[in-house]
């Protein structure tokens, strides 16, 4: 039995926000750093999926570079993990076509996005995703059992879902909504490239409530709870939010905000600097993509060989 194969993807949507960082990118880095030596890792910037929302070409071009720089700035290591653009591996589209012909259309049409092929192409055994993406994995697993059953093969592999243990980070403007790039207000989210001044300002303006003292009460005080949860996400001792809330009881909200702003700024300082360096070295970004593509393609071609043989192509 071979080692694990971990695959995950992220769309090139510009500079990631704190939710993307904590929910996905930092998690990928943790998986990379704790992986067994025989575990293979594939991290894809899924630019073909980004085409479903048409944008000016310059924007897509820039966003791809920004995401690549962000992943490297987070600490993903191109010598350990294949980091690549989905569109550079033609087999993604090829497998997607084949699966779309074999999957039941009723099930297909109920899905908003279709991401099974990306995962199955690498015969991934483990796929880290946020809670919100669980349904993609259910669908991928269903595709595998359909395909393998129909063609009496075992060439596709059912992936296991690794649900990110990270908490959902909420919008700074509306703590009942998740922090998202789709929010029209830029004040609602912290970007991983924000300066300490920008971070402090956004957190100072974060919506809380009219009670001035800190308590951790997610149901009744979601804005304050979100700030404490951000703090907990960065806590070197890994203290749970409830525990941090207790320890900060008596603090004023303004004081809590200062602490959170300081911690977030400190944590993002190195990432911001590395991001700046990578963005000013596009040759390096291309080199990493080239290296990642080579590794991804080798695996993708092997899988497609098996798939084609199984269906008679
Ligand atoms: P957005 O909501 O900004 O469009 P995406 O849906 O593109 O973000 O998600 C990209 C990755 O970031 C996914 O793995 C998702 O689970 C994670 N993610 C997005 N927003 C958050 C958030 N607010 N908190 C935690 N993780 C998040
Ligand atoms: Na989204």
TrEMBL record:
It comes from the Eukaryota. It is found in: Mitochondrion. Belongs to the class-I aminoacyl-tRNA synthetase family. This is Small ribosomal subunit protein uS10m. It comes from Thermothelomyces thermophilus (strain ATCC 42464 / BCRC 31852 / DSM 1799). The chain holds residues 476 to 788 of 790 of the full protein.
């Amino acid at each position: 039995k071979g080692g694990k194969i971990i695959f995950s993807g992220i769309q090139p949507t510009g500079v990631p926000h704190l939710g993307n960082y904590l929910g996905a990118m930092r998690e990928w880095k943790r998986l990379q750093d704790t992986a067994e030596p025989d575990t293979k890792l594939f991290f894809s910037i899924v630019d073909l999926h980004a085409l479903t929302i048409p944008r000016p070409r310059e924007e897509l071009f820039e966003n791809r570079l920004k995401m690549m720089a962000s992943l490297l700035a987070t600490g993903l290591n191109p010598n350990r993990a294949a980091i690549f653009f989905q569109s550079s591996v033609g087999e993604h589209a090829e497998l997607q076509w084949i699966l779309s012909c074999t999957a039941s259309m009723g099930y297909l049409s109920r899905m908003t996005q279709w991401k099974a092929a990306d995962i199955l192409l690498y015969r991934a055994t483990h796929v880290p995703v946020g809670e919100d993406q669980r349904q993609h994995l259910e669908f991928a697993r269903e595709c595998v059992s359909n395909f393998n059953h129909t063609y009496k093969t075992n060439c596709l592999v059912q992936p296991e879902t690794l649900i990110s243990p990270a908490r959902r980070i909420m919008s700074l403007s509306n703590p009942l909504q998740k922090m998202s790039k789709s929010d029209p207000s830029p004040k609602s989210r912290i970007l991983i490239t924000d300066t300490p001044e920008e971070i402090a300002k956004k957190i100072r303006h974060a919506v809380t409530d009219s009670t001035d003292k800190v308590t951790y009460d997610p149901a009744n005080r979601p804005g304050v709870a979100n700030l404490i949860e951000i703090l907990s996400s960065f806590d070197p001792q890994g203290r749970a939010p409830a525990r941090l809330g207790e320890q900060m009881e008596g603090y004023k909200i303004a004081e809590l905000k200062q602490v959170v702003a300081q911690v977030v700024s400190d944590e993002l300082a190195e990432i911001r600097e590395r991001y700046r360096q990578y963005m000013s070295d596009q040759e390096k970004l291309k080199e990493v993509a080239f290296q990642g593509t080579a590794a991804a393609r080798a695996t993708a071609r092997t899988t497609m060989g098996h798939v084609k043989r199984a269906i008679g192509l």
